[in-house]
Structure formats: C-alpha cells, structure tokens
Design goal:
six-stranded parallel β-sheet, 21 helices, seven-stranded parallel β-sheet, alpha/beta, 502 residues, Rossmann fold, 3 domains, single chain
Amino acid sequence: MIDVELYCAKELYPFQERSVRKIIEELDSNGKKFNLLFQLPTGGGKTVIFSEIARRFIEKTGEKVLILTHRIELSVQTSRQLQAIGVSNKVINSEVKSIPDQDEYMCFTAMVETLNNRLNENENFIERVGLVIVDEAHYNSFRKIFQFYREGNILGVTATPLSSNRTLPLNDNYQKLIVGESIASLIEGGYLADADTYTYDVNLHGLKIGSNGDFTVNSSDVVYGNYFMQEKLLFAYEEIAVGDKTLIFNAGIDTSLRVEETFKKRGYPVRHLDSTFSDKDRKDVLRWFKETKDAILTSVGILTTGFDEPTVQTIILNRATRSLTLYHQMIGRGSRKLPLKDRFKVIDLGNNVRRFGFWQDYLNWQDAFRFPDRFLESRLTESDDLEFEVEYEFPKSLAELMDIKQLEGFSMSEAYYAVIDAGKKGKEAVQLSMENHHAVIHAASKDLEQALQLVQLLQEHIEHRMKHYTKCISKSTPNYLKYLIETYNRQLIQMLRHSIDE
C-alpha cells in the first residue's frame, strides 16, 4: 500500500496551477454537456491537478464529483490525495453495494467495472454528480459509463490522447483537448529526470499482430524467449546498467520468467512480477524492489500505470510494441526526479525508438486528437514499418468459423512479386487475395447472410493485406488505402453473391 504520509497537501507548481485554471475556465465557458480532454506527461502530476479541480468544482457549484479509474490501487491513491487537500470522499469498491451515507460525501472514486454494475442496477446510484473525471482516459472501458452522465461535464485525463481502440477515437466523446506541458519542458523546468537512450538492433521477424493492433504475447514470447535474445538482454544490461535499480518490461510471462532465471544464474538480485500475483505477493515484491539498492524487477503488463518508484535508474524495453501510449507509459516509470537523480537510462531492445522517436521528442497531440489514424500511420510508417515484417494473428474465435490456415497460407508480398516476375500487373495480386478470401468464406457459409457476416469479421485482415499491397507498390496514402479497401469489399461481396446464388 502507499504510505499515507506521501499524500500531504502542498502548493501546486506554477504549471499545475496554470493547467487547473485553464481547465476550469474551459468548463465554465462551455457549460453543461461539454466534455474536455486534458493531456499531461507521466510524472507531471495528473492526480494532483484533477484532485484540485475536483475541490474547486465542488466549492464553486455545490455539485458532486465522480472520479473513475481502471484499477483499485489508482482509486485508493486518488482518494488519499483528495483527503490530503480536504475533500471528503468515498471509494466505491466491489464491497460497496449501496451508499446510504452518500450525503456525507461530495466526491467519490470508483473502478469503472464496479460502478457500471451498480449503475445498471440503479442509474441513480450516486446522485447530483456534476463532473466526472476519467483517469487514464485513453482506455475505452470508460465509455460505458458516459451514458449515465450526459447532463453534466466529463473531464478525461491522460498522458497520451490516443484511444486504446483505433476504431473508437477519443474525439467521439470529447469536444476539445487541452495540451499541458511537454516532456522537454518538464525536464527543462526540473520537474522530470532526463533520459539517456541506448538502442540495440534486434531481429523481430516472427512477431505477429493481434486483433488489437499490437504484437501478440505468444509471438513475442517465441521471439524474446530464445537463447540469443536472452543473451542480448544480459549483454545490454552488463554494458549499460550494472548496479542500477532496473525495471524490465516484457510482453509475456514466459519471457519474464526466463529473464529472471537468466539473471539469477549470473548472481544478480532479480525478481519476477505479473498480474497473477496475489496482493500480498505483489506488495512483498515491490517492497523488496524499493528496499534493494541494485534490484532488478522483470515484469509483465502490471507496472505501466499506478506504479511509482522514483529510485528506478534504468528502464529496459525487452519487448516491441506498436502502441505509442504503452511506449510512453513504460519509459515514464523511470522519469521521477530525486535530489540525487536528474537522469535515467532507457535500453531499447524492440526497435521502439526507431518506430516512435525518442521519449523526449515533441509530439503534436492536437493532431493526434483530431486525426488519430493519420497520426498513427505516420508514426508507424515513416522510418521502419514493422507491419511489413510481421504476420497477422487472427482472433481465436474466427478459427471456429472458418479455415484460418488457408488464409494464413497466403502472403500478399509473395503474391505481388510472383505476378511481377511473371510479367503481369501488380494489381493481380489483389485479385489473388480476393479469391483466397472468397474460397475460405464460401466454404464456411451456409447462405449469403452468413457469408456477409464473415466478410465483416475479416475487415481487419482485409485492411492488413491492403496495407501490405500499398507498401509493395510504394503508394500508401490514407485515401488510396481507403479506396482499395472499399473496392476490395465491394468486389468480394459481388463474388460471393454470384457464387452462392448459383
């Protein structure tokens, strides 16, 4: 648990005060039914800022504030910060079935899933809420709550204003974005430690893209679990970070356990942590990490949010990701500044810096908010588009509906170069792809209605193939890709109508 004494009231930094005033002015000038998004880098004090906003909103309007998080640890941390600045509040956890004493509180913190269950049972579970604050607003799980609070205001807060689901952009739910201080500005102002970044070239062939758009855990475990990658990790650590308190991020549990084994054999103090640990075991590991000077903690998907250990000196990205949000979250774990720590190290073993740029680099977050697809495409294709190096991994549910192996056996790039070598037009590769999709869908469908449903389920795979094609022909503008996908779908459906009607 977080020590209570860490949560004491303190004067806001000047940039935090500016952000609070700007947000409140924006809410005041736009009135009710206005949703606002606020961006601030990890380490900039988002919890301090939105807690102060909650206090001033309650003071000014007399309405209640609801703060949503996606993990109970974040709810508890927020509750303590609110308490420190004099805001009485109540945590809504899984044990809270009703709130008979809700008139005693003006502020509530809740996990999104728990609150959603309560609101579906009783939409007036918490009454007179004028402002809903959403922490880590890029997660889409919060959307289900918004329907209950359309009459008030919603303030989303995030370090990276990019939706966790590309098909559900944040500008669907928020009318405006306010951008806070940049990482470079916070470093220059002495609020964040600066990062020294070390990159090592790695061979990522064999990675597969899952339905969420990122590299799959299974394929990452295969690539990063092998002997050569373990040796490269150990070499990088011994070259750059021996004796540092080090946090290693992995994609899969199997990889992390092998990392623990590898470092133990060399006599280094190392522990493994993942989401399957009990609360007690997790606390024990984190306490050991905090108290051990040169500790190495190898982890999986659990320390990217809600974890704060300022003494971390080195971050190792022992994984590849296509998520800019995750990239910033991982590195941000090392950015806390201490009196004797104004720099930290980042070791990249996933070509992530090549994909996204340095952590300190300027990013146009307004562009990301308004045009997320264009923004993400430019990040992933400007220098080294790893989508060309990887295979698409189908959701497991599709394997029950059709012959996935037949689809996996088709390679767009191989088909393209085969038709070119035969003296034909490259566009014939698209026709071969379409025939492959048609054969699999036709074989799996009992009628046209089912065939059309399968076409819809394969939209991500169709888009994936068309992206491969545009890279083969070196023409990958968003408009052309959109045209290709629309044409592909229209012609595929025509083929299915013709063959099934027969």
